[in-house]
Request: fold
Amino acid sequence: MAATDPSHATPLNQPSKQVSDDARGYYVPGEPLVDPVAPTGPISERWTQRKFDNRLVNPANRRKLDIIIVGTGLAGGAAAATLGEAGYNVKSFCYQDSPRRAHSIAAQGGINAAKNYKEDGDSTFRLFYDTVKGGDYRSRESNVYRLAEVSASIIDQCVAQGVPFAREYGGLLDNRSFGGVQVSRTFYARGQTGQQLLIGAYQAMERQVAAGTVTQYTRHEMLEVIVADGKARGIIARDLVTGEIETHLADVVVLANGGYGNVFYLSTNAMGSNVTAAWRAHRKGAYMANPCYTQIHPTCIPVAGEHQSKLTLMSESLRNDGRIWVPKKKEDCEKDPRDIPEEDRDYYLERIYPSFGNLVPRDIASRQAKNMCDEGRGVGPLVGDFRRGVYLDFTDAIARLGEDAVREKYDNLFDMYERITGENPYQVPMRIYPAVHYVMGGLWVDYHLQSSIPGLFVTGEANFSDHGANRLGASALMQGLADGYFVLPNTIRDYLADGPFEKLDESHPAVVEARTSVEERVHRFLTINGTRSADSFHKELGNIMWEYCGMERSEEGLRKAIDMIRELKAAFWSDLKVLGTADSLNQSLEKAGRVADFIELGELMCIDALNRRESCGGHFRAESQTEDGEALRQDEEFAYVAAWEWGGDDGQPVLHKEELLYTAIEMKQRSYK
Amino acid sequence: MNLTLKIWRQPDAATAGAMHTYQVEDISSDMSFLEMLDVLNEQLNAVGEDPVAFDSDCREGICGTCSLMINGEAHGPEVTTTCQLHMRSFKDGDTITIEPWRADAFPVLKDLITDRGAFDRIIQAGGFISANTGSAPEANSVPAPRDKAMRAFNAATCISCGACVAACPNGSASLFLGAKITHLGELPQGQPERDTRVVDMVAQHDHEGFGGCTNIGECTAACPKEIPLDVISQLNRDLRTALRNGH
Ligand SMILES: Cc1cc2nc3c(=O)[nH]c(=O)nc-3n(C[C@H](O)[C@H](O)[C@H](O)COP(=O)(O)OP(=O)(O)OC[C@H]3O[C@@H](n4cnc5c(N)ncnc54)[C@H](O)[C@@H]3O)c2cc1C
Ligand code: SF4
Ligand code: FES
Reply:
């Protein structure tokens, strides 16, 4: 790693050349895509220079500029607070009853920042390097560097707001190492880092609500974006209490609607997390990038039965002390694990990866757990004809450290486990199974976080740019806050410097079209009068996605999945049953809209996965592996961002490729053996 | 197990509500309480009856969205959120009464859903630290003593669910309010606005129609995050100091 700025004028890698064409017949090749505002020059100066170059908006003019922000998680909440404070006129939307309930609240582990408080050699460059490498070289170099650069300010900002991070006895901030990283750069607030960070952003936003710069619309769902004369100029939203369809116009629209992991039905995401805001924008011309990149988390509480509605994550820190195993013999799977002698246990991670053992990266731990269960050696209750679980055993840790020490470290997690499963993990080994956790794909954005629709910006988990094919622990919170507090407020002003834009009339054809399409859609859901609930379609979609577009994918499986999803879509639109009316609180109607969008997204995810005949990050393509079964990346073919353009209801999606060229980091293959 | 459910049904805020009785069968003890309601809703949908509306989002005990009175207790019999309550807490053949949060300041919107917007407005009245983006000092330049930071943290774990209000015979939000006052007041960063914060937040609390605290303690017994009663003493102390200081 270079101590001085290592950026080279000419990139260190060659543009990729795809020779395989597995998705032929499912898509249309499009023009190459370049980020029109990508910065150049030494990597460490790109952001500073850009902040200076971006045009300013005079404080007196800011009041006249209207900004719509969809989403109040870390990305949207922080952006609303900051832009409101700067004096813009902000309208903020969320589907929950309070902005503070956005899904960011569920994050447990921590947030990274290159503070180097421990003097253990951390730096902006090292955080940047780890993040690009961790993402398997499928993220953008300039964006990630900027993320690492502003990370330290995030901690300052949050502490000033009163976020109660963990502290040492002297009163200084504590931090720990997390997710296989060798430096201590993760700041945390017990197991509730997300909650504390979100409350900080929420309170900052409520302060602006009181000041009159931010207006909050809770229990509102954005159902369409208004694109007039080529620019995003507003949204159509439904008031979820009264059912009223509302038109909101603005000079610029920001989407901060979070991730779409719920396409898998069972995931660690909140029940209401959806793709609607992003998908509606996609259908209006915003490109969807790398949709198939899904993060699977290895330590979740396994599915207990057919009626399960969601999965609960348990902090990955458990892998520091717990040993993971399954029985060697299938016959033992039903036995009480305490009756299985040591020699009949397969500590498979320790066996296959002796140097990393139970601490291998998330994707490897997840995939091996699935392999064990697929072999028939899973444990726990039968769900269907399958046991989905492996043991995470603390017996050795309790013997070594004592029960009290283990209790002190993991008490709340053990309690939560017991509450959900009814088993005491101090006595019986815990059971874990991988679950969908986070998505790395999202709407395509340029360096300014602007999508392919001018005036439509996308922040946080909803965009694609910073994590590549995998995400390191504690980096999503960092991105949400970086985008919201520091990046977007600086880039959006360059766009707004051209404003205020000509006032839009509600009779403008673009407004009428958007509104009418929403009304018709709502009407259609209510009049199909079929037999099945939206939930039942959602479950079916989830099964298809998990089976064929989950941890392991193959050409054959993906083709099959696409056919199945197409059939499901037809069934949905002819056999859906939504009771109630449009002009009232109607949760079935809300679900129907979300599931309809998930079905279309699911198809695109499968096409994207089919095209990408390489294994990288959390995405394992059976056709691309090493001799000993490890993931094999194909840089010559796929070092690009796949940005998909909507091809119309009857057309095929159009694939635009943005080359990923690295000037500061050389690509390397991963190895954890 | 088979259960009888008595559920409050109310089409909207303006229409009167009533209890309805439903039967559910084959409920497994591993289901969460909300998953049991999902089963009921699938059943209702199938026979063409409007499903029961209830709030939930994270289903993980952290977002504070779920909010049910179960057999007269906020979040039911265990010290946890409704979404983390599991059916193993009930027995085959039980009759379970399910109602929305009870408090004048939380009007019913539909069935089991209430409007808790008053909590946001209390925060708007001063439940924050004024820190402008970009001008924050280096985080470690202001050390926070560990014991105070711990107390702040414990108070900050409040998830704004409103169970304290629903459990309180007076419909007071003092526990919620005290938790925020304690969280921000224990930190060095929270000092400049300490006096105005408590005065303004208490005024908003009263304005929203929450009742006064008479030290009954039902709030803390119902709180899924075990916020202790002493945050209310802190609230009263801070309020007295502020008034003495002329606010
Ligand atoms: C259980 C769990 C644990 C995690 N732990 C960590 C961790 O330790 N560290 C880490 O870095 N990351 C973690 N993550 C990931 C991280 O929490 C998320 O990636 C991040 O919080 C996303 O923030 P966001 O602001 O982009 O979106 P969100 O917080 O998801 O917010 C989305 C917002 O959009 C709104 N919205 C969505 N659609 C619409 C619509 N159509 N109309 C109106 N509003 C809409 C919602 O109401 C909400 O306000 C975790 C995730 C999970 C699920
Ligand atoms: S104090 Fe407890 S019961 Fe009251 S809102 Fe907070 S978490 Fe809920
Ligand atoms: S649904 Fe989030 S706390 Fe219960």
Observations:
- Chain A touches chain B through 81 residues (CB under 8 Å).
